[in-house]
Every structure is written in structure tokens, then in C-alpha cells.
Amino acid sequence: MNKPLLSVRDLRIDLNTRLGVLHAVRGISFDVAAGETLCIVGESGCGKSMTSLALMDLLPRVASRSAQGITFDGQDLTRRRIAGKLRGRRMAMIFQEPMTALNPAFTIGDQMVEAYLYHVGGTRAKAVDRAVQMLEKVGIGSARSRLGQYPHQLSGGLRQRVMIAMALMTDPELLIADEPTTALDVTIQAQILRLLKDLQQELGLAIILITHDLGLVSRIADRIVVMYAGAIVEEGTAAEIFDRPAHPYTRALIDCIPQPGKTERGAPLGTIPGVVPSLIGRQDGCAFRDRCALAGPRCANDIPTQAAGSHRWVCIHGGRA
Amino acid sequence: MIAMTTNPPSRTAKTLRKMLHHPSLVVGVAIVAAMILVAIFAPLLAPHDPYVQDISRRAVPPVWYEKGTWENILGTDQLGRDYLSRLIYGARVSLLIGFSVVLISGIIGTTLGLLAGYFGGRVDTLVTFIVTVRLAMPVILVALAVVALFGGSMWVVITVLGLLKWDRFAVVVRSTTQQIRALDYIASARSAGASTFWILLREVLPNIAPQLIVIATIEVASAILMEAALSFLGLGVQPPLPSWGLMISEAKSYMFFSFWLIAIPGTALATLVFAINLAGDGLRDMITPERS
Questions:
Q1: pTM of the model
Q2: Residues of chain B found within 8 Å of residue A95, distances taken between Cβ atoms
Q3: Chain B residues with beta carbon closer than 8 angstroms to that of A140
Q4: Own/partner pairs for A276-280, CB < 8 Å, 24+ apart?
Q5: Which CATH superfamily is domain A6-90+172-313 in?
Q6: What pLDDT is stored for residue B102 in this prediction?
């Protein structure tokens, strides 16, 4: 891989709770190259959203972040001043709930123009032109009249498009999307994904897509990171993960995707038995062993990372399918 | 994507039409506006000088009584001053006190509430403590002490009430800010690099404006009543300045002989407070940002 756009080394996020310190993210490292789509996949509570929030400095107050290094284009993101300059300018974020992610008190035009004037400057007229251009880019018709509308006048799909357009106002190089389609209809989901993919090709945008939906991932990802209980259990290109999944958790996730033709009508959909382990305190050995069919006594020891080229996984069993 | 084809009617026109279809808002605003106009143009509207006494024409009844005259439409008080003129000038005092008090207490309360709600933690603990301390102080007693120290005057009343009546602003703003802080558009603004000051001013404040307006109207009404109470006790506005509360107070020894002396300023006071509350309710319906 060339020099990565975003590089995260040994990121840890701890939350102080009444029951003890909750290690939401336990030392993860990953890179994102310019123009690629990295999908971070995992079930609820695996730390994927925390990771995205940590990158944007949006962690809740009870959370503390530590890392060996987080760099964006070679600049140290752990330094507040540098992060403040990059945030909202060269890296942008879109959120899960388009219903609450827009301020109901202002027109979408005001909200789009505001951030642009703050970061880029220039005249208001220029910013408005830019907003119109961006709305058109995300497929919103009669864009100029849309600028005067309030968020409540738009549908969920439209709002998510507006969110994307707003994020793109400053021409960022990295877009972090935290479950951008979860709150939308399936048909709209497909449209938004298509849009993200098109925008990426057109603008050379790097995207970090946080999701629990592997079906969605298969359509858009270049590379995939699978997280479980705060740690990365498998990482590789989309082809590697889908064609030759190495970690039992990844395989179980893939088995949960119903496939037209293959999944029999009426047959139960795949599930993974058991629940996610508590994230409070230390975790020795493999966190998935309680739910894993292959688990044995050795799984309680430290698990070495295995690798085949860019494909890496943390499991002592089987290896690649 | 289906393109939007027609332009909806202009926003202002739509809001205006909506407002006209809200009877209590129309009535409330009309009465308050009328009283404000009367207060502003008091020197032009008052038929007589409200301070000139005429002992020979004491306690003349209003015009609808047998002994009433058109000279003094609402009669005269126990010192022979024209009651209508005093009522008109009294509107100035009541409204000035009501709005000034809310301006002061609103700024204090909103600031404290925003800080407590947004930052939480120790800031919140501190503000909550200050609010509790403030709630433990009986306004009338504190006002009594302050008036005893500084002497009674309109500006003392305004300052005292302004410094004492911010608690409701603080409490409501705090809890609504807490709700709004958790919403994605705040996170979105932060991710776009907005400063805390900017977020409080542009993201939070406009979205709590509906609640603020409602409290402000309640507080204007309550400040007017409180001024009346203080003046009634002799702690507020001092004679000969005509305040509605003071007029009631001055009339209390005559109420069994000259009933109108107490009924007229009382009615004016009740009408104003009622109209302000009507207007506040209506305004809240108008400006609540719509959420689908």
C-alpha cells in the first residue's frame, strides 16, 4: 500500500463506568489509503462507532482515548490544534440519524453555507453556489429552491443526501460514515450507497463506513475490518473476507446474510448463539471463544495474529476456508 | 428522485396566515400591543396631569355613576387626581418593570442554564446548587431587606426582581439543553469544527427559543404581579408615581365607599397578565420548530 491517508496505531478507548473501566476499544490499528473504502464491521457494542467518534474527537466525556499514533496525511491527529484544523475541512463525518443530524431551526442552505464560510471563507454568494453544486451532485433536483427549506420539509432519504452534500462542501479527502443507511428504507439505502460509491470515484474520496450490515459491505468495500469486543479479529480485502473468511466470527456473520436462491424459503436465518462478552476489565485469550464452535482450551491463551499477504486474522483454528 | 416542481408560498405569508387563525394569539397580542401603545403615548392620551391634586374634587365616581362627569371618565382618587390619567401612566410603570425584569433575569437564567446543561458535570453541580440557594430565598423578604437598605424606587424593584427571578429560566433551559446536547446535529456541528460558543449560540439557543418565549411571557406576567404586590406593601414603586399595584394599595382604605378605586386598576392588571399569557401560548404554537 502507498503511504496511507489515515493511519491509526494501537487505539484504545476506555470508559469509566460505575462497575469499573470498560475497555470499549482494545488497541486497534488500521490504515486507510486515499480513495479507498474501508468498512468497519461488527455487531452492536463492538467499538466500531467509538472508533469513528474517536477519530473526530467526539467521544463522550467519560471516555478517554489513547493511541500510539493517529495521523492524517502525516499530521498528528492527537494534537488538538492540528485536529481542529483538519476536522470539518479535510475530514468530515455523516451520522446515522438524518432526522436529528440537521438543526431544525435553520434552513439547509444556512447550515451548508455556514461551515463552508468558516473553513474556506469567501463570499456568501460563492458559498451558496457551492451548496447548489453539491446538492446537485448528490442528486437533489431544483437545488436552489431546496436551500430555503427546513429539515422537517425533507424526507429521510433527502436529508441523508443533504448531510452528505454538507459534508462534501469543503472538499474533504476522508468521509467517515457511521451507519449512514441504517435509519432509511431499503430502497433508499441502495440509492445512498450507490451515491457514496459514485462520489468516491468522482472525487477520489476515502470513506470509512461503519456498519453491522455485511450485505451492504459486500457492495461497496475495498477493504474490510471485522471487529469483535473492541478488537480487530480479521482484516483483508473484500474478496479475501468474503471468499476466504478465516475467523469463525466472520464466517458466522457471512452465514447470517440471507442470499436469494441459496437461503431456503422458510428455513431459519443464521444466528450466532450467545451474547457479546462484558467489556469491563481484562480479556484474556479469544473473546469469541464462548460462542465459537471450534473453541478449545488453547483459545484461553493469547492468540497470535496470522497473516497471508494483506489478509490478517486473530485465530488459532483452521485458517482460511 | 422526483424533482420539486412548485414553489411553496413564501414563508412569511404562511406564518402570517397561521397567526391570524390562532384566536387566542390574536386577542392576546392585540391587548398587549394596545397597552404598550397606551404606555408609549401616555402624555398624548391622558386627559389630565396624573400628579395634579384637587382636594375639592376628591373621589368623584366614574362617568357611568349618577354623580360621574365626562370631565373625569374614570373618576378621581382620594386626592382628586384624574384616575384615567393615572391608569394610563401606570401602564408605563407596569410594562417597563415587567419587561426589564425579564430581560435581566432571562439573560442570567439562560446563561446559567446553557452552561449547566451543555457542560454537565461540575458546572452542572455548581449551577444546580446556585439555583437551590436562590429557591430557598423568599423574594418578598429579600426585596424588603434591599428596599430597607437602598430605599424604594422603580429601579431598585427592577434590579431586585431581575436578580431573583431567573430560576425558572435556568431550570428549563438546563433540561432542554441537556436533551438537545445529545442530538446528532450538535455532534455534526462539532465534527464540522464549530466552537463551543458557536454551538451554544447557534445550535442550542434557537432550538430552545420556544421554551424561552413561553417562560419569558409567564415571567413578565409574574414580575408585573410581583411589582404590584411589592408596591401594595409599600416596598416597591413609591408615590406619587402611578403604578397599578400602588393604586390598589392607596385605594384599599376606601374600597367600601369607592369600590371603583380598587376595581379599575385591578381589572387593568388582570387583563394585562391574562393577555400576556394568551400571547405567550400562541407564540409558542407559532414558533416551535416543526419536527416530523
A1: 0.74
A2: 184, 187-188
A3: 1
A4: A276/A43, A276/A44, A276/A45, A276/A46, A276/A228, A276/A229, A277/A229, A279/A22, A279/A23, A279/A24, A279/A45, A279/A47, A279/A229, A279/A230, A280/A17, A280/A19, A280/A20, A280/A21, A280/A22, A280/A23
A5: P-loop containing nucleotide triphosphate hydrolases (3.40.50.300)
A6: 93
